[in-house]
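Progress report, Aim 2. The chain analyzed during this reporting quarter is listed below.
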Amino acid sequence: MDNLSSDNQERSFLSETLCAMTQFVVTHSKFSLAFALIISIGCVLLTVFRLEFKTDRADLIDPTAAFHKKWINYTESFGSSSDLVCVVESDTPEAIKYVLRVLGKRIEQHPELFENPLYQIDPGDLPSKGLQYLTPQQLQTGLDRLDEYGPIYRGGRWDLTQVDLLYDRLKYQIQSRSTSYRGAEREEHLEPLFNHAAILSNSMSRYLANQSDFQSPWPSIVPVNERMRERSREVIYLLNQSGTMGFLKVFPVHQENGFDGATSAIEKMRSIIGEVAAENPEAKISLTGIPVLENDEMRKSQSDMINASIISCLGVGLLLFIGFRGFRHPILALIMLSAGMAWAFGYTTLTIGHLNILSVSFAVILIGLGIDFGIHYLARYIELRHHGENLEAALLKTSSTVGTGIVTAALTTALAFYCAGLTPFLGIAELGFIAGGGILLCAVATFIVLPALLSRADRNIEVKQMPTPFQGKWLQKIIIRFPRSVALCSLGVVAFCAVQMLQKTDDGWKSRVVYDYNLLNLQASGLESVEVQKRIFNDAQNSLLFAVSVADSVDEAHALRRKFEALPTVHHVEELASRVPAHSPRETNLLVQSFRAQLEQLPDTVPYVNRLNPLIIGRKLEQFYVLLSRYNHPKAQATARVLDQFLNRFESMTLSQQSRFLDEFQYRTTASLLGQFKALRGASDPAPVRFSDLPRSLTSRFVSAEGKWLIQVYPRDHIWEIGPLEEFVKEVRSVDPDVTGTPLQNYEASQQIKVSYKTASVYALAIICIVLLFDYLSRRHAAMSMIPALVLATCTWFILFNRGTPISIEAAIGMFLVMCIGVAFVLDRQSLYDVFLTMLPPVVGGIVMFGILAMMSIDLNPANLIVLPLILGIGVDDGVHVVHDYRMKKGAYKTSPSTINAIVLTSLTSMIGFGSMMIATHRGLYSVGLVLVIGVACCLFVSLVTLPALLTWISNREQATDSVSVNSGDDRQNKHGKKRRNRNEMEAAA
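Predicted structure tokens for the chain:
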């Protein structure tokens, strides 16, 4: 039978306090409920009108972190928005360009939702100042070359452009330089002549083969002249190299309040895309970008959480109705939980003042953990009523017995979450602070609201009308009959799972449970924004993620670009400084003006040139061919072969065909030189390049209001994976230690999340051990264990710090705990054993959980890593109630039916609450639900099988030892008979 009389209960200050509080609440139940209701209403109103929401991922990071300060500095200059990216795919570039233009025009009609759309780059006035982009040396070289054409554009001798005269001039120059120079010097001076001969001859040969294929026979006067002529007026579109994919980038306008963020802009963009796609079925239009990825994740997770919450509430309610076999008491527990959650929201509003995308999940945590206190309270209360206690006595005894376990469990779980506040990741710190306070408030509601509700609801209820909850008698019998076998078998299961956690490799042993940093793996499968991002990287060698570096000047931007482009992990660099002249106007202004002055008097039309005689041309080309054939220079030999082929085709033509060909070619030759002169004159505007000359869609992205220049550094590899990301971050920081950007934010945040959860778990484990020592040791022994250990640990830390030997906080805490445990071992060994036994469910259950995760190939990730503090809190909660139940009893231990009922119900409610997230299509939420279900089930197994079996085995051995000391003369047969009778009596009582 259960030993529940007051004689077997250790009265303490805590139990007396809880008993007095319950007495007051029961006596003044109306006042207590009215007070709780008023506080709840006030908290709800405060929450509605004062609680804010922060949806930006940057809000999760401590603003004092060094890496985040760099991001803040960047966003202050250039804004925090990332681009929405419309991707247009088609077989022809022209179709893509047309769709981009249509999309761009419709987006420009909604300035309230979109800013600075970029889909084409209009050169504007830049071509008129093109010569300013050359170096002073290049400009001087161009002027020297231009001077060679002086007789043509200054003297009006356009007849010098005749093809026969060009060949005569080249022939004379080659012969003259051949006799004037020797050796390498001769080769150096002949090189430009051979090049000009090659250009002229190839131009004639190509034009003869195809009348629509004319190539200028004139060498470039300045290095960029050819590109200037071809692209000076061209509108540039954002296309991949193969021309199968085009891009439109635009900044979304974010909503200031609520969780909408860029939702309005994204929805409107998708509406526009749908309209344009219907009008242009030949093109495939998709939407992606960092804001879209984050928005899709937020909206998908919100939708999944709503569905999960509905299922969770229904499932938890149904389970409580089944577990307590009635409706009245589960409803009272849910009312208590509602009051506790209302207080928690008010506490959050008063302390933090806002929720972020991590801390908003605290409500789900409270549903899973806050209801546990009410379940334990109800289970013991109903059990006492069945043992004949009246209403008030049952409530008082419940508070003084199981109440101490509830307080201890609430403190350990809350402190486990509060320890997250010591971590550097702000999102986790705020979640820990809010969840810890919420758990304490739910525990307070358990002792204020629930007894008052029970005193009113059960006032006229007879004992026979009380429900009979699940008691787990079959489990009791098995453990009582075979405690050692059950303990050994369960420990064997634990050992098997522990072995599965590790695997041997060539580098030694390593964990089979890995941490997956890839945030794309958290998204819902088949999400358009994710799939498009993968196609962009594969087909366009581009990424939505890029590092950003900020330069104070154009020269610094040029220097950084060169350094970044030299890195192996960098694919390309985008910046605007290259569109600004590298040299100041003072260095180039006079040279540019010289071009304009010399080319001022150009004719408006192509000057007339005498007609060419085919016979004379044929003869002169033959002579030039013979001349080139004498030189072993590769360029001369190649040109000679071209001339030979040209002459063969030319001689096969009729005289009229030859004349017509020469007339047309001569006209185009003269026109191309005039065009080159006009292009130089058109690019010789000496007015300095201004920002107004550059496209607004570019300047808004790459130049800040303070005149800072942005450099975007794109990775070569897929940096959603941690390996390439680490290498990329390392290399770009080697060039600019202040570099920032989304990939670096992701990298640092993921590292902080991982470290924060681990640190929080270590701190929580330490603080839980301290609370349990306070709970199980007497006040005198607790003081003797804690105070000297604290003094010694502090002095040791101070001495090492002064000697320049820094010691980590974790090491200091470990040293303090070791000292505490050592002193406690001497003072009260049994209580110390109870502490270790209480820690079995979270520690051993965690080992079993990780073993199962390894066998199922389930990885940890930034979403499901929250399992560490949650499992620690849930496991300790279970362990505290089992060990408290053990300490309240004398003789052979048998787990109380109320304890079994409460632990089963609390575990199942947690599993249903968290497991409801497994319906989510968002893979991050799904993994959270899956891992927590496995973890809670493992803690349940250890709490109701391993731990009770060990306690029963220990109590049997203690009882057998006491029996031997009293009856030392009895023989072995009598001992076995007595033990058998004791076990039969316990089974009968169960």
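Residues 477 and 987 are 6 Å apart (CA to CA). Residues 135-223+582-670 form one domain. These observations will guide the mutagenesis work planned for the next reporting period.
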